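Ticket 4471: requesting a sanity check on a complex prediction with beta-D-mannopyranose. Repro inputs:
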Amino acid sequence: MNKINIIGQPLYNIPWQNCPENSELPVWRYSGNPIIQRNPVQGVSRIFNSAVLPYENGYIGVFRAEQTDGIPYIYLGRSADGIQWQFEKNKILFTDEHGREFMPRYAYDPRLVKIEDTYYIIWCQDFYGASIGMAKTTDFKIFTRIENPFLPFNRNAVLFPKKINDKFVMLSRPSDNGHTPFGDIFLSESPDLEYWGHHRHVMSKSSNWWENLKIGGGAAPIETTQGWLLIYHGVTGTCNGYVYSMGAALLDKNQPSVVLKRASRYILTPETWYEERGFVPNVCFPCAALTDSETGRIAIYYGCADTYVGLAFTTVEKLYDYILKYDCAGETEHELGRR
Ligand code: BMA
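Returned structure tokens:
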């Protein structure tokens, strides 16, 4: 029996490359990165921090697209293999509950999560200050906005892909109105995706230097036999600006505000030209992970330098071993996060 398994569907055509020899980190990059280059669509200069899911016989995704007027919106993309993407010409048009157009003033860092038969998009938008926006779709044709879950300021949120104890569960990072120099991950519950409460603290920035300024959720948590595997981002401040790396932790299955384990070391940090050089240098910003329950393979989609999309690979077992090896979870991680 494996020490850890992904709970979910097999995904036979998951994008994949084997681990290079002597890889010190548990996550390795796709050799064809970046998979999305500059100026990918007319009127769009950069696509980065984006999220994908399997759909029909291939993949579908919601992409943070920086338009040539500088305003970010979400564009829909489709792919047969998860690597080559075709984008729609225009941004996603959101409607209200009556079917009338209801567009956010801007929208960025989307996550895409399927719960039961519905797909949810969660992003950052203006709500008299940056906060979280949400919409749902079942066919990727009609996108209906849902009430904004939180008050400003909050710029980073992702739903769990399943109800826990019969509640929808969201991770988010409350912040301020700037490039917030602080931030912890919190969790909120909702019976109906409209009213949110039972807020809990999940994890703080840490004394580990790569994540000593702020942290934030990344891909939708991955359900495993050992708990929820969280791939998140951790930020450090340098004299030349922020550096965004990827981290990993394991959350309790039934009480996910309890952190069981947390790796003291990053799982990926900016090292290649496309991560170090771009609109915002030194950014690895994970927003999605595809998983194959049969082989334990995980394909991570991450934004690179606020300019490109990169793909990286790991397996559930490698990530779990690494988290156990470098576990630094202490009292604050292990508590329920209720004060
Ligand atoms: C964060 C978000 C991300 C971005 C990152 C680095 O605050 O705005 O979209 O990738 O900063 O610029």
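Notes from triage: The mean pLDDT is 98. Leaving this open until the requester confirms.
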